[in-house]
Amino acid sequence: MDHPMPSAVPGKPTEAVRELLAAVLEALTLPHDTPDYDARILRRAGLARVVAGEALAESPSNLGWNTDYLRSKLAAEQAEAEQREKNKCGRCRTPFDPSDMAFDGRARHRETPWCRRCVASCHESTDAFHACPICDPSRRSGDDR
User: Fold this and answer.
1) I need a surface site. Which of 23, 58, 89, 142 has the fewest CB within 10 A?
2) Under 8 Å CB-to-CB from 116, ≥6 apart: which residues?
3) How far is CA 125 from CA 103, 118, 143, in A?
4) Is the CB of residue 113 less than 8 Å from the CB of residue 132?
5) How many CA atoms within 13 Å lie on the side-chain side of 15?
6) How far is residue 21's CA from residue 8's CA, in Å, rounded to a whole number?
7) Whole-structure pTM over 0.70, yes or no?
8) Is 84 left (phi over 0), alpha (psi -120 to 50) or beta?
9) pLDDT, tens digit, 9 for 90 and up, residues 91-112
10) What is the DSSP annotation of 23-90?
11) pLDDT tens sequence across 49-104
12) Which residues contact 35 (CB under 8 A, 6 or more apart)?
């Protein structure tokens, strides 16, 4: 699978190859404490593999397009991940279910970052020393979703 690069000096990758490699590295780099790390890194690795395979199969002049495509897909994946994270309860991390409107259901409680089940269990607590992110804002993780 030897694909000579026009005007490439042996041993020195062209700028387009370096950009593509940087994009692949971005795809394969995700902090380990990221929510849904395993699923996200698997999707990103699959995407990087497809783009790298296509880049090898195509003309070297198309490397810029492959790099732009990969970066746009990574940006879209990041935006989707952020949206999924916003649609989870701030306490139990369960995704909100707007159809579950029971008093202790999985729908969002008003405009708060909490689900109805977590709010119900917080308000029903009989523990005199009960403190949680719902009733004690100082215990929040720093983001006021």
Assistant:
1) 142
2) 100, 101, 102, 103, 104, 105, 106, 107, 108, 109
3) 15, 11, 24
4) no
5) 1
6) 16
7) no
8) alpha
9) 788 888 878 777 677 788 877 8
10) HHHHHT---TTSTTHHHHHHHHHHHHHHHHHHHHHS-GGGHHHHHHHHHHHHHHHHHHHHHHHHTB-T
11) 999 999 999 888 889 999 999 999 999 999 999 888 888 888 788 888 878 777 67
12) 81, 85, 93
At position 134, the amino acid (one-letter code) is: I
Tokens at 54, concatenated: 């296509």
Ordered by start, the domain boundaries in the chain are 15-86, 89-145
